[in-house]
Each structure stands twice: as structure tokens, then as C-alpha cells.
Write a structure and sequence with these properties.
InterPro entries: AB_hydrolase_fold, Cutinase/axe. It comes from Trichoderma lentiforme. Pfam families: Cutinase (PF01083). GO terms for molecular function: carboxylic ester hydrolase activity. The chain is of the alpha/beta class. The chain has a single domain, classed as Rossmann fold, CATH 3.40.50.1820. It has ten helices and six strands, in the order H-E-H-E-H-E-H-H-E-E-H-E-H-H-H-H. The longest helix is centred in the N-terminal third of the chain and has 22 residues. It starts with a helix and ends with a helix. The site of one 2-acetamido-2-deoxy-beta-D-glucopyranose has 4 residues, from helix 7.
């Protein structure tokens, strides 16, 4: 099953004939994951979170975004990531209306996520359009951490940072993000070399340790909210999100089966391989190259 999801994502990402491939609709959550720079192909450390989420939301699928995730040609890599993520989301959204999607991204993958949802951050990045409302209606949670286009002091910001990230995000794009504020959590801590424009790489590697449980709880509760109000299958059409709705009483969602699909096979996520020291030092090396590249561009 893992092979199936993986080959679907590969096809979707790398082929212009992607539209021909029909995704399998998940009864639970369809989790699209964009890994961080220089992490090996797959979900990267974020797989730790998606496996916990999948354990709590049965019949979920985890699909990694297939993109280079390189630092040396960051703009192109990031742009490829946005194309691949938007293709996955569009294909799935069209094939599986009314189903529930979560987007997770770390570091470069966090920018891939925010650019996909909100449209391009702006120069020097490729001018991607934001996702359509139609598909976004199915997206119940967007959980990102260490986004280099982090904008400080927004309602969906989490963590200790009060500084903007290394790259700007245009105000038009921020406005688009704000439409989905209740579904987004964006973590950034003080000192993070990317999202806080700081100088501490270690901070950039600590989000899962520090906030993993919160992130998992958020995604699961967003999923549960989106299904518990929907005893009438119409709920997704008009009020896709019980966003500001304080239905705090719920939760026990006995009626939580989504009114969507026939049981789709669960794709069990890859076991988190763990952030290892090798990756860290690779990232540090790549970082210098990236910073040089960036300063040349600006
Ligand atoms: C965010 O808010 C804090 C506290 O009000 C402030 O010190 C900081 O300058 C703000 N950051 C930005 C980027 O505006
Ligand atoms: C980011 O935006 C600010 C304010 O709009 C601008 O002054 C600055 O030059 C921009 N920085 C980059 C790197 O584009
Ligand atoms: C970087 O952050 C980590 C984690 O908070 C901290 O332990 C370490 O002392 C920091 N390093 C520097 C040079 O500030
Ligand atoms: C769904 O909502 C629309 C618009 O509010 C309404 O016209 C329609 O009757 C509803 N359908 C069901 C099945 O409740
Ligand atoms: C689901 O909700 C309906 C109406 O709210 C109720 O009649 C039914 O018993 C519930 N089913 C379960 C399994 O809780
Ligand atoms: C991910 O999970 C594995 C196995 O549960 C664990 O060994 C590893 O430390 C975790 N990595 C992170 C970054 O939390």
C-alpha cells in the first residue's frame, strides 16, 4: 500500500499526464507532507507526526510531496515543490470531493505548503497561484514549522518568534493565508536561522520535540470538528469549516464517519528515520551555499 501511495505521488508530481491517475480516496485524512531541505525523499521527520495522526484517524493516507528539497538551488526546488503539492491537492480534491485533507510541511517544505495554499511569497520565487477555494474547502489543517517566509505576529503563529523570516511574503499572499487562519498553525521559535532570521540552526531542528504533541492534537481535532458537524452531508458545501464556531462541546464525535467514500486502504506512513547528525551537518553546509546564493540574488 505504501508503494501505491508513493507511486501515485510520483506520477502526480513528475508527469504531465498526472491528471489521468485517479487517487484512492481516503475515508480518514489525506495527509500531504513536504519534507525539509536535504532530508531524504519521503516524509522526513514530519513522518513522526503523520504516523501518530494516522493512528488516531483510521483509514488515513500519507503522501509525501516528490520534490528535490535541495538548498543549493532553493528557488527552483521550492517552486518544483509547490507544483508537485498543488498537483496532488488538485487531483485529490477533484477525485474525492468532500474528503478531508491535511497539509504538513517543515522548513523548505513549510514554504512549499504556505506558497501552495496562499500563492507565491513573491520575489524571487516563482509566481504560483493560490489553491482554489473549492479544493481548500477540503483542507482541514495546515501545520507548518520553520517556514523561511514566516510573518511574525499573525493569529496563526505559534512559538516564541516575533521576527519575520529570511524571505519576505507579499501582503497579497499574507491576506490569502489569513482567509484560512483558523486552519493554520505555523511554528517558529526565537533564534531559528530561517523563520526567525536568527543564527541558531539547532532551534530549527527542535520543533517536533517541542511541539509535536500539539501539532498532532491540532490536526486530529480539526479533522474531528470537520466531520462531527457534518451529520448532514451538506455541511461541507456551505460551511466547509466550523472555523470560528465554538462547538467546544463536541469532540466525542460518535458520528464521526465521514460521509464520503468507500473504505480506502490505509497507507501506513514510513517510520520516522529520525533527524540524524549527518543530515544536520549536511544542512549546515548547504545553508552557507544557500545564503550565498540568496545574497547574490538580492
Ligand atoms: C511583533 O510583535 C512584537 C511585540 O509586540 C514586536 O516587538 C515585534 O517587533 C513585532 N514583529 C514584527 C516583525 O513586527
Ligand atoms: C522585504 O520587504 C520589506 C518591506 O516591504 C523591504 O523593505 C525589503 O527590502 C524586502 N526584503 C527583501 C529581501 O526583499
Ligand atoms: C541554540 O539553541 C539551543 C536550543 O534552544 C540552545 O541550547 C543553544 O544554546 C543555542 N545556541 C546558541 C549559540 O545560542
Ligand atoms: C445543501 O445546502 C444547500 C444550500 O444551503 C441547500 O439548498 C440544499 O437543500 C442542501 N442539501 C441538503 C441535502 O441538505
Ligand atoms: C448519529 O447521529 C444521529 C442524529 O444526530 C443519531 O440519531 C444516531 O444515533 C447517531 N449515531 C451514532 C452511531 O451515534
Ligand atoms: C521520530 O520517531 C523515532 C521513532 O519513534 C524516534 O527515534 C525519533 O527520535 C523521532 N524523531 C524526532 C525528530 O522526533
Amino acid at each position: 500500500m505504501r508503494g501505491l501511495a508513493l507511486s501515485l505521488s510520483l506520477l502526480a508530481a513528475s508527469s504531465t499526464a498526472a491528471a489521468a491517475t485517479q487517487p484512492t480516496c481516503a475515508k480518514g485524512l489525506y495527509m500531504v507532507v513536504a519534507r525539509g531541505s536535504e532530508e531524504p525523499a519521503g516524509t522526513g521527520v514530519t513522518g513522526n507526526l503523520t504516523s501518530q495522526i494516522a493512528a488516531r484517524v483510521p483509514n488515513s493516507q500519507v503522501v509525501p510531496v516528490d520534490y528535490p528539497a535541495t538548498l543549493s538551488d532553493y528557488e527552483d526546488s521550492e517552486g518544483d515543490g509547490v507544483k508537485a503539492m498543488q498537483t496532488l491537492l488538485n487531483n485529490y480534491g477533484q477525485a474525492c470531493p468532500g474528503s478531508k485533507i491535511a497539509i504538513l510541511g517543515y522548513s523548505q517544505g513549510a514554504q512549499v505548503s504556505s506558497d501552495s495554499v496562499c500563492g507565491s511569497a513573491g520575489e524571487p520565487f516563482i509566481d504560483d497561484k493560490a489553491m482554489s477555494d473549492e479544493v481548500m474547502n477540503s483542507v482541514v489543517a495546515i501545520a507548518i514549522f520553520g517556514d523561511p517566509t514566516h510573518v511574525a505576529n499573525l493569529t496563526y503563529d505559534r512559538g516564541t518568534s516575533v521576527k519575520d523570516g529570511l524571505f519576505n511574503r507579499s501582503s497579497a499572499s499574507v491576506d490569502q493565508c489569513k482567509k484560512y487562519a483558523s486552519r493554520i498553525i505555523s511554528y517558529c521559535d526565537k533564534g531559528d536561522i530561517y523563520c526567525d532570521s536568527g543564527s541558531n540552526l539547532t532551534v530549527h531542528h527542535l520543533y517536533i520535540d517541542r511541539y509535536g504533541d500539539e501539532i498532532v492534537d491540532f490536526v486530529v481535532s480539526q479533522y474531528e470538528k470537520s466531520t462531527s458537524t457534518g451529520s448532514g452531508s451538506n455541511a461541507t458545501a456551505t460551511a466547509p469549516f466550523p472555523t470560528t464556531k465554538p462547538t467546544s462541546g463536541g469532540g466525542s464525535g460518535s458520528n464521526s464517519t465521514a460521509p464520503t467514500r468507500t473504505g480506502a486502504p490505509t497507507t501506513s506512513p514510513t517510520k520516522g528515520s529520525g533527524a540524524n547528525m549527518l543530515t544536520s551537518s549536511l544542512m549546515l553546509g548547504g545553508l552557507l551555499a544557500a545564503l550565498t546564493a540568496v545574497s547574490q540574488m538580492l
